[in-house]
Amino acid sequence: MKFPGRIFTLFAALLALPPLLPAVNNPDIFWHLSAGRRMAETGALIRADFLSWTMAGEAWTNFEWLVQLIYHHLFSAGGWTALFMLKSAMLAACLFPLWRILRLHGREGWAMMALPLFSLAMLPMADLRPDNFSILFFLILLWRLEALRLAGEAPSPRQTAAGAVFFAVWANLHPG
Predict the structure, then answer these.
(1) Please, where are the H alpha helices in 17-110?
(2) C-alpha to C-alpha distances, 11 to 99, 106, 109, 130, nearest whole angstrom
């Protein structure tokens, strides 16, 4: 049976959205906002713990510095609404590369089941977390690599350079 149309894919995406839209409830968000504010105020990366009582002043590798700056600037500009919008957009964006992977394999019709199931599986992670950048970036990477594999192509120099930038950004958002 031929896939009946993109209207079903749109419907599947709409079904998938509600589980991805709970309020921001991450207990670590205040740590991320404080670290982002500190870096914005000093213009430098944080090298020592400044928030905990037990490890104050100890060397600290802030491996999520870029996401903390993003959170701080968004929160400064738009408060909790801006952070909610980022979270919602990032999680909803995960549906696109997943759908593209299904299309690569001629399984676009499976979107009716796959997209809502993916969104339900994401419920434990459906908060504003640096990890969600890794989920989105992994899905984008899988989509692009699978497209190259199925086409029997090697990445072009331009794609290789874009991949290096992609990984550099990803590693500084969340090294997951």
Answers:
(1) 29-42, 65-93, 95-104
(2) 12, 18, 11, 28
Cα–Cα distance for residue pair 165/169, rounded to 1 Å: 6
Q: Do 106 and 148 touch, CB atoms closer than 8 A? A: no
Using the CB atoms, write b or e for 28-63: b if 16+ within 10 Å. ebeebbebbbbbeeeeeebeeeeeeeeeeeeeeebe
Q: Determine the number of helices (DSSP H) and then strands (DSSP E) in the chain.
A: 7, 0
Residues linked to residue 59 through DSSP beta bridges, in sequence order: 48
Contact 82, 73 (CB under 8 A): no
pLDDT tens, position by position, 121-139: 988 888 999 999 999 999 9
Amino acid at residue number 142: L
User: Could you give the CA distance from residue 38 to residue 84 in angstroms, rounded to a whole number?
Assistant: 22
| Cα 95 to Cα 91: distance, rounded to the nearest angstrom | 7
Instruction: List 48's β-bridge partners, or say none.
Output: 59
Cα–chain center distance at 154? 26
Tell me the CA distances in angstroms from 10 to 17, 137, 147, one per residue in order. 11, 22, 22
Give the pTM.
Answer: 0.88
